[in-house]
Amino acid sequence: MAEDDDSPAEPDDPSAIRSIALSPDDAVDAFVYGRENPGDAVLRVTPPFHGRMRARIHVYRVDDTELTGAVHLSPAEIIADDVVEDYPDLESALADADADDPDETDRVRERHVEAVEEWRARAREAIVDAVALETDSGPHRVELKPLG
Fold first, then answer.
1. How much is the average pLDDT of 83-87?
2. Do the beta carbons of residue 137 and residue 146 sit within 8 Å?
3. What DSSP designation does 49 have?
4. How far, in Å, are 10, 73, 141 from residue 134 at the CA level?
5. Which DSSP category does 48 fall into?
6. 46-64 pLDDT, tens per residue?
């Protein structure tokens, strides 16, 4: 197969993928969803696979990748590590607040909402250049192409 051929011999083989286009907003929303809600959110790429693919946000409770052949990209792998580590932790902030003062608890929650909005802005600018997909023949590096 030629390097720039977009038609793989096996349409369900993710090693055919060279680049994945994705929305930074989807990556950030998926990360925040996973921190704030039950279930998981990922960026999902579905077969048939070819050189250039598009990932879209996907929320699930049961991983169906074995059934569908889809590739799930963890938002924590798509956003730079230092930014992921800086995600504001509401539980720690609430633990440090005076539990007997409902006004302070409300202020902590308001500050958390503001901190998450600031974090979202940073995270949208911190999409990594590439990720490794797991394939039958081992890790396969693909470029990430932020949209917008």
1. 96
2. no
3. P
4. 16, 10, 9
5. S
6. 999 999 999 999 999 888 8
Amino acid, res. 19: S
Cβ neighbors of 32 (< 8 A, separation 6 or more) are 116, 120
Closest residue by Cα to residue 142 from 62, 60, 53: 53
Give the per-residue pLDDT at 2: 41
Cis-peptide into 48, omega within 30 deg: yes
Overall size of the chain counted in residues: 148
**Of 103, 104, 120, residue with least CA distance to 36:** 120
Torsion angles phi and psi, residue 98, rounded to 5: -75, 105
Please say whether the dihedral angle defined by the alpha carbons of residues 66, 67, 70 and 72, taken in this order, is positive or negative: negative
4, pLDDT greater than 60: no
Q: What is the DSSP letter of 98?
A: -
Identity of the residue numbered 115: A
